[in-house]
Amino acid sequence: MAIVTGELGPRVRWAFSDRDGGMSGAPYESSNLADHVGDEPEHVKANRAALAAAVGVEVAHVVSMAPVHGNDVGHVLGISAEPVPRVDALVTTVTGSALLVVAADCVPVLLGDSEAGVIAVVHAGWRGVLSDVVGTTIAAMVDLGAEPRRTRAVVGPAICGQCYDVPRDRFDLVVAEAPAAVAVASEGRPGLDLRAAVVERLRGLGVASSLHAGCTSESANLYSFRRDGLTGRHGGVITLLPVTVLS
Ligand SMILES: [Zn+2]
């Protein structure tokens, strides 16, 4: 698995995987992180363990979610083996836990305010952009003591606006809420740039972000549901380290 790691301040570590180097066989080859697509559970667990290890966390401490393309945020109060149901974002202040977001064209976002000790993950497709799942997640972080101007984000790989052509009515609906999503897809069809919409929403809230990786549809080493149909999911984890007492 090609895993890229980074930090969002001294207490927050993150990692993103692609689809290479894991345990899963076709059509999930090979680093599928999703437990809802029909892959072998043991392979998914091994792939998740490799990603979790990159941020120094045991796979048993990884909390996942079962997104429904809504804008509800799950508040993680402790370690749980079961995915948090019916949410598209997770937020926590629990040190030593890791939050997981998986995707294959939708936008995965990792967020952290290291000073406040608050981390979050977001899964945003076009419905999530429309319902402002990014805004509801930042609000949930603020409720736990985070400050937007201290919060930093990594926005992971997603389908780009040139590849993501959509029906005109969906285009109109989304760009009315998120003008930054406007894109022109192949043959001049209406397109949506969901990453641009997410980055612009974060910027509007005062949250600085950086982009990780590129277009899922164009990258053979990333999963794309639109390109492949039945396939796996890549993803990211974020973890909060304990406060260390400096001597
Ligand atoms: Zn593309």
TrEMBL record:
InterPro entries: Cu_polyphenol_OxRdtase, Cu_polyphenol_OxRdtase_sf, Cytotoxic_necrot_fac-like_cat. One of its GO terms (molecular function) is hydrolase activity. Pfam families: Cu-oxidase_4. It catalyses: adenosine + H2O + H(+) = inosine + NH4(+); inosine + phosphate = alpha-D-ribose 1-phosphate + hypoxanthine; S-methyl-5'-thioadenosine + phosphate = 5-(methylsulfanyl)-alpha-D-ribose 1-phosphate + adenine; adenosine + phosphate = alpha-D-ribose 1-phosphate + adenine. SUPFAM superfamilies: CNF1/YfiH-like putative cysteine hydrolases (SSF64438). Keywords: Hydrolase, Metal-binding, Transferase, Zinc. Belongs to the purine nucleoside phosphorylase YfiH/LACC1 family. This is Unannotated protein. It comes from freshwater metagenome.
